Each structure stands twice: as C-alpha cells, then as structure tokens.
Write the structure tokens for this entry.
Amino acid sequence: MNIVCLDLEGVLVPEIWIAFAETSGIPELKKTTRDEPDYDKLMRGRLDILKEHGLGLKEIQDVIAKIDPLPGAKEFLDELRSLTQVLILSDTFEQFAAPLMKKLGWPTIFCNTLVVEPDGTISDFRMRVEKSKLTTVRALQSIGFETIAAGDSFNDLAMIEASKAGFLFRSTEQIKRDHPELPAFEDYGDFLEAIKKAL
C-alpha cells in the first residue's frame, strides 16, 4: 500500500511566517526552513521576536484566517486523495493549521503544538516527536506502507530521501542544486503525473 506524505507550507499553502512578517512589518520573521536547516534555532528566534514586539497567537491567527491555499492546490490534493492515501506532514502547529485544513477539504495533518499562555503569548512549542517527518515516514513503513514524499525545504529532505519515491516541489535553487538526484517540479499537473507514475 502506498501513502503520499506532503509538506504543507510552500507546497499547498503560502508560508505562514512570511505572510505574518509582511503583515506585521517585521522582516526578520520571513526566515523559514528554506533558509535555516535547524528548526529549533529557527523557532526560538521567532518566539524571541514575537516577545520583543508584544505579539501573540491571536495576531498570527488573524493573518492565517486571510491565507488561501496556493492556486490549484486543493484540486491537486482532491485528485491525489482519489488515487491514494495522503498525509500532510508539517512542522507547523495545530493552532495555525485548522483554518487552512478547512480550506483544503480537511485532509489529515500531523503537526506540532504551541504552548500558549492565558494572555495569548506563545511561550514555547512542543514537537510531536524528534525529526517528526522522517520518524513518521519510517513508522508508516514499519506498518506496511510504501511512502512517496514531497516538500520544498531542508526539513523535508530526510523524509524524501527515505521514501521509495521523493520529489521537490517549488523548492529553492540552492536545494535543487544540492540535490540534483531529486526530481523537482513547479507545476501541480507535472507533479501529479510524477506521483501517479510512482504509485
């Protein structure tokens, strides 16, 4: 049995932190997993910036409410889900993901959680499991699934490389140069055809 594991941000929806950086006018928040391979370092930096500016969960959720899936993403996901099981593996947080999942037709997502204080301040974050994307792919393989994985960032590479087929979708030029062995796509139509061949 196959299961397709997809990253969320940059693949199906815009990058949440970039949208928030643009709305809040804080350019330092534009840094994502495309720029920083160390997710813990990236998130600690984000929390420090939020604290410095007195921003909390509500401000981020207000921005997320206005984010729509990337053009063609829902149609791509609907067709893919008609062919095989699909699981979204994301390093985002459940407090961010729900409005986006609604717009995508409620696909299954495995992500992480934020520690939010009563005043709405985000004080910490809890990862579901260490190396969550790779760990999840290996767990799926251990129960009889063959995985096909795709993403756009540094934190997707391990699950892509551990899968029977793996793809980059709308990744950076640097990641594509560093990993010429991975087929890279910019268009949902071509991407879907490649996944179909791998099924």
Observations:
- Strands lie at 2-6, 85-93, 109-116, 122-126, 146-151, 165-169, 184-185.
- The first strand starts at residue 2 and ends at 6.
